[in-house]
């Protein structure tokens, strides 16, 4: 557990914006985890009557999940270079790669990696919402 660092942070990205990202990332993670059943394949059995009357809502559910991910991807892609670097740095602090006291170093490292693929990088992390939340807490935002 990281200790909270007592400092007023001058963030380019607003903490409320990060909280929105956290909410969307957790929704995406929850949707993935709901469908996961210990890594086993899901089997569907149909009897003769069910096959004729079957109505599948799975596409609507899948589309809703993809909309949340697509919305988050677009929000991240719309960030400017400084905001994207701070978002990545918050995730790194929350994940434990950097301490809150190393905030400037984390932001500089994130800025060096660029933001062309920031959304792909961040959305590939299953615990993104948790790590962003821990990062905000660590810096006291």
UniProtKB/TrEMBL annotation:
Protein name: DUF3775 domain-containing protein
């Amino acid at each position: 557990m990281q200790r909270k660092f007592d400092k007023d942070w001058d963030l380019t990205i607003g903490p409320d914006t990060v909280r929105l990202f956290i909410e969307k990332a957790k929704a995406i993670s929850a949707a993935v985890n709901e469908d996961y059943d210990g890594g086993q394949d899901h089997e569907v059995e149909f009897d003769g009557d069910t096959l004729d009357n079957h109505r599948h809502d799975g596409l609507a559910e899948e589309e809703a999940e993809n909309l949340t991910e697509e919305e988050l991807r677009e929000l991240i892609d719309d960030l400017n270079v400084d905001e994207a670097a701070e978002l990545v740095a918050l995730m790194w602090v929350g994940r434990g790669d950097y301490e809150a006291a190393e905030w400037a170093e984390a932001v500089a490292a994130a800025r060096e990696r660029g933001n062309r693929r920031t959304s792909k990088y961040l959305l590939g992390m299953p615990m993104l919402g948790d790590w962003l939340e821990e990062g905000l807490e660590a810096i006291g935002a």
